[in-house]
Amino acid sequence: MSLPPGFLDELRTRISISDVVGRKVMWDQRKSQPGKGDFWSPCPFHHEKTASFHVEDRKGFYYCFGCHAKGDALKFVQETENVGFMEAVEILAQEAGMEMPKRDPRAQEKQDRRALLAEVMEQAVQFFRLQLKTSAAHDARGYLQRRGLTAQALDRWEIGFAPDGWQNLWDALRGKNVPEDLIIGAGLAKPSNKGGNPYDTFRNRIMFPIRDARGRAIAFGGRAMDPNDNAKYLNSPETELFDKGRSLYNHGPARAASGRGSSLIVAEGYMDVIALAEGGFQSSVAPLGTAITENQLQMLWRMSDEPIIALDGDKAGIRAAMRLIDLALPLLEAGKSLRFAIMPEGKDPDDMIRSQGPEAVQAVLDQAMPMVKLLWQRETEGKVFDSPERKASLDKSLREKIKLIRDPSIRKHYGEDVKEMRWQLFRGTRSGGESSFQQRGSRGGGFRDGTRPPWKPGKGFGPIPQPRATTRASLVAGAEDEYFAAMREAVILATAITTPAVIPEFETSLERLQCADPDLAALRDMVLRHGISAPERLREEIDWSLGPHALENLFGLRHVGITPCLRKPGDTELASMTLAEEFAKLEARRGLDAELAEAEEDLGGLADEALTWRLRQAAEAKNKAVRSENEDQAQYDVGENGARLNRDERDAFGALLDRIGFSGK
Questions:
Q1: Which regions are flagged for Low complexity bias (predicted)?
Q2: How far apart, in whole angstroms, are the C-alpha atoms of residue 616 and residue 473?
């Protein structure tokens, strides 16, 4: 409906914003100056004790210096009454004594008929309420008592009873001269296919009136008393008053309660809503026998930015939650989302309140999960991701769902959250079974030879420990291996942090980076978590998570500081070459260690401790030979320090060198 020019201006001149606001607040007498039209009070939109909410009659506006809420009288009515714009106009126009503009004749005729249908519905409400007090409703009253409904609750919710029989309501309404077309038009009766009188829609059912946001009765929901009835719950058919996909049970009272700050709870059925409201959760609604529609979702978001979907803890409730995700994803906006509170298995809100009290329900609501977590749960629950193909299938499925989100900012944040949860699932146990770098850092740790790791949170990197000359390591990785790996890993991480653009190219290699030192592992985790999704914030995220000295200490290491690419941040070609070289060195070292370990097993009992140490010298010689690209030949005396090998040892040692491909003189 359009308003004629000047209507709103006239409305604003007739009303005083201080009168409108004054119904909801208590003015601060010390700060307010009524003679000047200047008023102050605590803000009605957020909890505070000081008077920071300012109203100026001359300007016709309000403003809160705390939460920054602002607007005129119409906006105030919309926010506090939780109504739409036209409803706010009607409310203020009635107060100001202004007649709302006339609609066109056809629209007026339609409106008049809707008003007549609403009157017929009110008569039906009263009929059903009276029937609940009769002897025919004995079983229905017993059922309601067992469900914990008091007489006062029955009156508040106007619950009634439709007696068994084909024309009880029809005869009662016709006896009051209600036209047949209005009874049928309200959905209270259906025409007979056998040429007889129309028959009642509801028979032998407990009746729940359904009212719109303005409090008009528009439909009924009926609960069958006959256990063999095909439909346990039956709603009114769609009429000029009732559109099932655009209606919510308990809409008006819930909207008002939500406007006062209560959390909006969406339950599955009438009894759940009644139980919740009676238990203190006034802002509770339910869809009408079907899954939540797009229109209902928009209605929910007009009442609350983040409704809580409280579903039964059974398979049907879980399926309903999962379907709602697909509906909601394309409609998400900044600040508009859903949270999900799944009741314990086999329970609904009504069961929990009756058996455990409102506190148990509140505990479940407090644990309501954001939609992104339920999306993750749906895509991963009950599945095993033990192969690259299965992991790729999960990635594809999640990407397709996230693409449904239209808002680019929300889509980006969903991607970051999903990547974090994917990290926890696939890579979170890489270091000591812990997925949090804070946990790894707090536990300390060190190399297998007992030396300290190169960096401790808040203390900074120390010099990477050099292997002691007296150390007699086995052929498998020891302190020297960790020293070598720690140097290479530090250079790799520093390069990635300096030039994040190369991280996607080396993501797989970074994922395989062992990082025996827990604090280097923490840096690796940060690079993988944020280096692709938010490279511009990578340093900031590291500073925030690991402390302000983490990067300073990393780049202060001598072998890191002399790396050429670090002096040219942003040079992707140089950074890429550096990472390729460093990863190659690590791979070469790991390959040699594997060969040596296998050779050690083959020696069996032939090798003593001295031979083990000498073979270690051979491994070091081999490793140096691999790293020396400009050296044509490398000659090493394996039997240095005056040691001599007997014939059996020489034969075994020669076989080992042949096995690992070492040719020395």
A1: 432-441
A2: 7
pLDDT of residue 59: 84
Q: Which pair of tokens denotes residue 455?
A: 């960096």
Contacts of 372 (CB under 8 A, 6+ apart): 414, 417, 418
Question: 35-39, 196-200, 544-548: lowest mean pLDDT where?
Answer: 544-548
pLDDT at res. 561: 80
Burial classification of residue 284, based on how many CB atoms lie within 10 Å of its CB (0-12 exposed, 13-18 middle, 19 or more buried):
buried
Percent of the chain that is helix, strand, coil (3-state, to 5): 55, 10, 35
Can you say whether residue 177 is alpha, beta or left, with left for phi > 0 and alpha for psi between -120 and 50 degrees? left
Instruction: Report d(CA 79, CA 305) in Å as an integer.
Output: 13
Amino acid identity for residue 180 in this structure: E
Architecture of the domain defined by 109-373: Alpha-Beta Complex (3.90)
For the chain, the structural domain boundaries read 7-96, 109-373, 437-569, 588-660
Angle at 555 between CA 553 and CA 560, to 5 degrees: 125
Token pair listed for 75:
């906006």
Residues 7-96, CATH architecture:
Alpha-Beta Complex (3.90)
The whole-angstrom separation of Cα 420 and Cα 425 is: 9
Runs of H (alpha helix) within 406-537: 408-426, 437-443, 479-498, 507-511, 518-530
Residue 611's nearest CA partner among 659, 653, 664 is: 653
Pairwise CA distance, residues 511 & 506, whole Å: 9
Inter-residue contact 219 to 46 (CB < 8 Å): no
